[in-house]
């Protein structure tokens, strides 16, 4: 046990960083600090947060190996999405009100995952293997849940808002909360109980790659929670430079959502791409589609609760151009994953949609 704990020195680094930032770090970032100290402080904070995030993924992956799929990918997905909810909540509660942050982050996750990460994965997997297979029933299960939630949460509010700011009625708000939780609960039951075989490709059995020692479930579970707590306590500090950078650059507000999404999803994307390179496309797609579904189903209730209790305004409905991109992404995902096999053309097409999203953001 002592030997195993010696490898968890990043946790000590995280605790020391918390002490520093809670004492003086956050105040330094919040004041008009000179550019060099500001950048150094931000860089240290970003480095530590990323170390904590990768540690969360490492322990999630260890639990995944011990418990097996589909529980493995589910644990990793829930750990990553909980980090996302933490980051979004922290940015919402830091600085000026940003009523579209949650919407932009959810949309950024959808575009980054279903177009960017999926596109890269299918492209490099197609180059190496020409054609890759997956369990068609599993992807259908994801899409059956993703499509209605995406439309209800990101499109419907545009047509039911009670004022020009996009605020929703109490009835619609609670409908979205209950529908998101209920549908995700049914999906989890399907994934872990009644139809687990949907999420396993028997022709390319998933073999998790783990580079650290495996210990007891309790060991990895406790440390997983510890690293998550460190991220929670540091998230507010990281929210300050994210808000400041967008303001200083005069960048669109949607960039904040994309930054949060890329920071949180980076470890999961690396794991999924590695899985595709070993011809385990099903595991990669479980991670990707599971992230999108959990993002919408868990972020919407969380941010709506925050908005209600702290009086922070929130707007979920996408703009006209973003709605077109969302529909194109959902349609392309249905087409790409309709036969049980993928190739490089599927990957290239998804990447085109992702580039269109980036260009639109700055247009």
Could you explain the architecture of this structure?
This protein is an all-alpha fold. The chain has one domain (about 1-360): Up-down Bundle (A middle domain of Talin 1), CATH 1.20.1420. Helix content is about 80%, strand content about 0%. The chain contains 13 helices and two strands, in the order H-H-H-H-H-E-H-H-H-H-H-H-H-E-H. It has a two-stranded antiparallel sheet. Helix 2 (about 10-30) packs parallel to helix 9 (about 215-250). The longest helix is centred in the first third of the chain and has 33 residues, at about 35-65.
| CATH class designation | Mainly Alpha
Helix percent band: over 70%
Tally the helices: 13
Query: Termini distance?
Result: 55 Å
Write out the strand line-up for the largest beta sheet, numbering strands in chain order: 1-2
User: What overall geometry do the principal axes of the alpha carbons give?
Assistant: globular
Please outline the major beta sheet.
2 strands, antiparallel
Rg calc: 20 Å
SSE string, helices as H and strands as E? HHHHHEHHHHHHHEH
Weakly predicted, low-confidence segments: none
CATH topology: A middle domain of Talin 1
Domains counted in the coordinates: how many?
1
Percent of residues in beta strands?
A: under 5%
> Which architecture would the CATH scheme give at its second level?
Up-down Bundle
Q: What's the overall average pLDDT, rounded?
A: 80
CATH superfamily: NCX, central ion-binding region
Number of strands: 2
SSE class: mainly alpha
